Amino acid sequence: MPKIRTSRTAPPPEGFEDIEDILEDYNRAMRDAENEDGEGKRKAESLWGIMRISHTRSRYIYDLYYKREAISRELYDWLCKQGYADANLIAKWKRTGYEKLCCVRCIQARDMGHAGSTCICRVPKSQMQKGQIVECTHCGCRGCSSAD
After folding, report:
1. What's the pTM value of the predicted model, to 2 decimals?
2. What percent of the chain has pLDDT over 70?
3. Could you give the C-alpha distances from 1 to 9, 54, 74, in angstroms and in order?
């Protein structure tokens, strides 16, 4: 969640006004996801909506800076510092093989049930059994391997 701007917070750099409406839409969607009733869902499943919105917002900022070159480095750094984008996830997207990564937790071997492995969503669909539907327990991803 982005930090709340106060009088002590540095003002946003030039160009923020152009994307402020879209980021506000993401904030509204995030608040809705946070307030959503988790009735009938598994414990981890209640966080999936929040993870997806965070991923989408970070991907939007990544595309603006790295793909379309529509924002300045100063604005990009400010957005990361203020919590609008996940800088660790974006750093992974720049590496080969991680272009479609859903969350950083899916590549951490210590969080997985088997030592030295990654999340099931990182396995290419071509290596899965035919008709098998896979869902990450951490974020609900159905496959973020770049080999797909």
Report:
1. 0.87
2. 90
3. 16, 8, 20
